Amino acid sequence: MSIIQNIRERGAWIIFGIIAIALIAFILQDGIGRKRGGSDVTTLGKVNGEVINKIDFEEKLDVQLKNYESQGVKREQLMGYLWNQEVDRLLFKSEENKLGISVGSKELTDVLFGNESPFKQEFTDKNTGEFRVNDAKQAVAQIKKSKNSTQINQVEKFYIEPAIENRLRNKFQALVVKGVQVPTWLAEKQLSETTSVSSISFVGVPYTSIPDSTIKVSNNDIAAYLKDNAAAYQVEEASRSIGYVGFSAAPSSADSSIVRDALIAQKADFKNATDPAVFLNKVGTDIPYYNSYISKKSLMVPQKDSILNGGIGNVYGPYLDGKNYGLAKVIGVKQWPDSASMRHILIATINPASGQQIRDDSSAKKLADSISLAIKGGASFDALCLKYSNDEASKAKGGVYPYYPQAQMVLPINDFTFDNAVGTKGVVKTDFGFHYVEVLKQTARGPAYKLAYISKPIIASNETITAASTAAAQFASSSKDLKSFNENAVKINKQVLPATGIKINDFDIQGIGTSRTTVRWVFDNKVNSVSEPFEVGDYYFVAAVSGIEKEGTASVEAARPQVEGIIRDKKKAEKLRTSLKGNNLETISTSARANIQRADSIGFLYSMIPGLGNEPKLVGASFNKSLINKVSEPIAGNTGVFVISVNAVGAKPSSQDPAFFKEELLQRTRSVLFRTSTALKKIAKIVDNRAKLY
Description:
By secondary structure, the chain is an alpha+beta fold. The strands form eight sheets. Strands 20-3-24-23 form a four-stranded antiparallel beta sheet. The chain is extended, with a radius of gyration of 36 Å. The two termini are 37 Å apart. 26% of the residues are buried.
């Protein structure tokens, strides 16, 4: 790892805070310059008339992408997240303006430099965890003094404004939440309900007593059910469904053998090569040559035991390494510590942030040598480091880098501090300049190995790719609609796989992967349309639009999997009611050929009945005092049809403190209100143009 990378990870001194902010400004300014030259200045959307500008959106997207870069998050994954953020921002802004919520000048200082400071990441000491408030204030002040309008605008836009918005949001949420109270009568009522219990005797006939195959559920049945229960089956965002088949263009066994045989042919030359770097540069490899040593536990390669057991000069392989074939050669072995510590004084030749030259090699070398002589003569290392070192992250700490593992530092520093004994001092040249280095500490020494690899990807041959693309093209050309699509799939023994719930702004399709162009095709075409072949990864896919789900009440086709069982059980219930005849449970038990059962300790606030499961209708009926020692009408439950007789309704002792229960109920009620944005979205007018622009 380079020195500059260590600087960024280990320190957040004021100059590097300024550099970090300046870098963001530079990147964003460059991005803005490029975008304004084209036709991208477009309204991405509107929230109650407030515009979401595409250029502003993409600037924020670039910053988000940089923040999540280390986590491997993709641009398209962040787009939906950022869109929702922007919609929420405008929704809350409107409400905050109506209420006159603001942030005063004194409060702004607390926002910017308090516990929730937007500058915390840049100005927190990684070693102590301390937020250096004064450094942050100085950095902001220095940027303002610079009168660089671009930097000032970027700091304002990406640090200060979001912090203010967050404070305003918290104030709004606090107003809403604190405005909710729980009256004492309601708390007392709910507390009494927690202790309410009942017991029942019942006769039940399960729905499973009637075979499903004997009950038909028509489209008309589903349509009627949806009409009566429309609120429960609303589609908030339109979607589409497809069926698709895939034709693999992944490397075949023959393709794999070609790569393996090629490596076998190079094995002898690799073994005899005296300069591995030159040889690898000549033959090419997917794993760059690392001209230094690594301990066995740090080696992240398959079959490393077999590789190392061959000894120096041995070539092991070919072996499989993911989607590659590899050869590995042991170049050398040394006794090295796992970790080392050093201190240094960097006399830089280039500015680590800008890449601009600071001084030439000759003058840098002379200064480093002079520092070396001065220290040998008794001069203070700390004083010289503080005066001359260009490593701003370490100079205030005497140039010290605590323990670091092998291969973390740039190669010359790495080799000097691991190859030499503790106490060794010297001048070392790197791409950053000249370093006066002293080895401070080392862990116990053990074997470390220098290895060279030839790694070649197993790729599909032209023949393999052509065969897959030709088969996909023939399938697509012979499939004119969904019916022929399915018939042709059967003919060539291909399974048609479904992908449902595809939204207009999606980038990924279930089972296929990332293919924004395919999503757009799906929404540009009608049911029965068949696509041309499209390539994703190692496959050529052909898709057919199988369904369209519009906003509003769900369609019969989409709702069938959810409601068919419910309607079937309702029809069964009508039949089963006739078997539950009689004026008492004994008579009903005989007519239904079912035993009388008992359920005790039924809780009012719980829908579960011991031995039956989730039966909320029965729980409700069990607390009906008019049914004590009387027989109910047949009740169509979740698992069957029941007739009950209530044995008793009472209460169990409670040790709960009423005041504590009321407070707990209040907090539960208030917690629901943190989903305020969901309610605001439902009443807002939101225009979303993303699908037109991406």
